[in-house]
Specification:
The chain is built from eight helices and ten strands. It is α+β, with helices and mostly antiparallel strands and 313 residues long. Strands 1, 2, 3, 4, 7, 8, 9 and 10 form an eight-stranded antiparallel β-sheet that branches. β3 and β4 form a beta hairpin. α1 packs across α3, α5 runs antiparallel to α6 and α5 packs parallel to α7. The chain is rod-shaped.
């Protein structure tokens, strides 16, 4: 293709660019046209001034191009008109500005995906598994423990009283489990376990006669100050010769405490007998008050007692 042909093809583009420049010049030079002129005179004057401006810049612009620029200004060509607000325009602006908000949105999306995934695929299945395990334990596991404890008590006890107490505890515990009352079921198991342990205990109830330790004492009960309660201080010595700590209910306040030494209420005659025994040589010779054997619930007393006890004096 020849050079002349290339210039011919470029001419339309150059003319368009010049027309755009003319429009831009007119837009920024509102003083080019005198206000009192109108019609053809106004256009002629405008063309003359435009021609002078471009001539001063060393650019020759044809009248046709100048007229086209003036016409384009009148028709608002080459003028950017912002689009009216709409949903599509908002989407387009979001897309254009994606580099600003994109990373933050992606991070938020990742956090949501990881959080929801962790909840639905890890946390919720874990909680459901825990709930199912608790349900199975309450409906099957705890009743099975109750049956096992009851059977042990039934086989090891030597008194019918223990069987009756165990039966009552098991019945209440299974009823609680059926109602979904886990606390009630666990309390029944604790009661059965305590009953079993009580049956298995073996110890001798000895009268304390050590130096610095009272062997007996007496008090006036608050409900009847005219009466006198006599107590002998005792301790439980296991089969291995070591003292035991046992739960003892204090008859004065109704509270149960685990103690190693406590007072057993006895008739005055028993109290005086122990007192005389110790006064003889400072030692209680007949110091066995009772024996607790395997398979029995209570102590078999070899001295007369009245059944009450205190843990503090």
């Amino acid at each position: 293709m020849t050079s002349a042909g290339a210039e011919v093809e470029k001419a339309p583009l150059d003319e368009v660019m010049l027309a755009m420049d003319v429009v831009d010049t007119l837009r920024h030079r509102q003083d080019l046209v005198e206000r009192e002129l109108a019609g053809d005179a106004r256009e002629a004057e405008l063309l003359r001034r435009l021609r002078d401006i471009y001539h001063q810049q060393g650019i020759e612009v044809s009248d046709a191009v100048l007229k086209e620029g003036v016409k384009a200004l009148a028709e608002s060509r080459f003028v950017y008109a912002p689009p009216k607000p709409s949903f599509k325009v908002s989407l387009a602006r979001l897309y254009v500005g994606r580099r600003k908000w994109g990373p933050a949105a992606l991070a938020i999306a990742l956090v949501l995906v990881i959080g929801l995934g962790g909840y639905f695929f890890a946390w919720r299945p874990f909680r459901e598994a825990q709930a199912e395990a608790a349900r199975v334990e309450l409906s099957e596991g705890l009743p099975r423990q109750m049956d096992a404890l009851y059977q042990t008590i039934y086989e090891e006890t030597k008194v019918q009283q223990a069987v009756g107490e165990a039966e009552n505890l098991r019945t209440r515990g299974k009823a609680a489990a059926a109602e979904g009352n886990r606390t009630g079921a666990e309390q029944a198991i604790a009661g059965l376990a305590a009953l079993r342990d009580q049956l298995r205990q073996e110890y001798t109830l000895k009268i304390v006669s050590r130096d610095g330790q009272k062997t007996g004492f007496w008090t006036f009960p608050e409900i009847n100050t005219a009466a006198t309660n006599y107590y002998v201080v005792v301790e439980a010595i296991g089969a291995d010769g070591k003292p035991l700590t046992l739960p003892i209910t204090n008859e004065e306040n109704g509270q149960t405490e685990s103690v190693a030494v406590w007072g057993v209420r006895v008739p005055e005659a028993t109290y005086r007998s122990v007192e005389a025994d110790k006064r003889d040589d400072g030692i209680v010779e007949r110091n066995t008050m009772g024996i607790k054997q395997y398979g029995f619930l209570d102590v078999d007393y070899v001295m007369p007692v009245l059944g009450g006890a205190v843990t503090r004096w």
